Amino acid sequence: MDYKLICIDMDGTLLNDEKIISAKNLRAIKLASEKGVRIAVCTGRIFTSAEFFSELLGVKSPVIASNGAYIREKDRNEVVYKSTLGVEKCKKLLSVFRQYSLYPHYYTSNIVFTEKLIHSSCFYKEVNKTLPKDKQVEIVLVEDWDEIFEKYESEIFKGIAVDEDLEKLQNAKNQLKGMEDFEVVSSRFDNLEVMNKGVSKGNAVKILGDYYGINSKQIICIGDSENDLSMIKFAGLGVAMENGNDAVKKASQYITDSNNCDGVAKVIEKFVLEV
Fold first, then answer.
1. Residue 244 and residue 224: Cα distance in Å, rounded?
2. Top-level class of domain 5-82+200-273
3. What residues form the membrane-spanning segments (predicted)?
4. Cα angle for residues 72, 78, 82 (degrees, 5° grid)
5. Is 98 helix (H, G, I), strand (E, B) or coil?
6. CA–CA gap between residue 256 and residue 267 (Å, rounded)
7. 37 FRET partner, CA 20 to 30 A, in 106, 140, 147, 199?
8. Nearest Cα to Cα of residue 157 among 123, 199, 98
9. Does the domain formed by 86-196 have CATH 3.30.1240.10?
10. Does 56 score more than 90 pLDDT?
11. How far is Cα 187 from Cα 251, in angstroms, rounded to an integer?
12. In whole angstroms, how far apart are CA 32 and each of 55, 102, 131, 271?
């Protein structure tokens, strides 16, 4: 198959456990790009964070952020697609977070809103220490959520909660899945990520493929977690990482090596470079 687009998840896939893109992965991506294959970073992360790693690839690469709620052709600074939650859905989601005593976080393309530095906001605070100022994620401590929801009505893409109490988290997830307003997935065993109904990595890959005139059979998607399932099922070639969860492996057509053993490079070498 003549593949034209490769969509790659970040954490647990493109990045190793040290949050680094290996030299072998970089080389394979560069060679694929030189063959005319488009490369897209596809992540649950906030856009600013995804953009930084995308630029490290050294190739022209669009970014799918917030699990598909925001797609940007960063090299032309063009927003291809966005789906925001809006005021009422943000409030409805907050009420569920409160019901289960979950700390709320909300994302725009470059801001994390939180009540205190914990979980996701703590993660981005640590990441910021290693980044230049213009690539850092802004972290805003919130006192009045209603004020934030009104001010950023057209900019909030995702809500997220992390908790060690997995039963509580699952109960909240089940309740949110039972509502008509939301799409709910997890990128880790201890989190839930909530977007507008219909938003998913799979839908975003379809939108990006249509944008470039590429059909699903010409697309490779690589991932490891539940939030990657939709794109792996959509792709002509869905690939699971060896370190991926069982559901992802079951849905995939091929299982590559782990994120610590250049699994992404091995996929590209086998199916694109034909090494």
1. 4
2. alpha beta
3. none
4. 50
5. helix
6. 6
7. 199
8. 199
9. yes
10. no
11. 16
12. 16, 42, 27, 10
Tokens of residue 25, six digits: 């992965």
Amino acid sitting at position 255: I
* pLDDT tier at 46, thresholds 50, 70, 90: very high
Please list the residue range(s) of the chain that carry CATH number 3.30.1240.10.
86-196
CA dihedral (69, 123, 241, 56) in degrees, to 10, reads 80
pLDDT value at 216 more than 90: yes
User: Is residue 39's pLDDT more than 80?
Assistant: yes
pLDDT digits (tens, 9 = 90+) for 174-190: 999 999 999 999 998 99
Closest to 224 measured CA to CA, from 16, 3, 2 = 16
Q: Return the DSSP state at 164.
A: S
First to last CA, the chain: 15
Instruction: Give the model's pLDDT for residue 274.
Output: 85
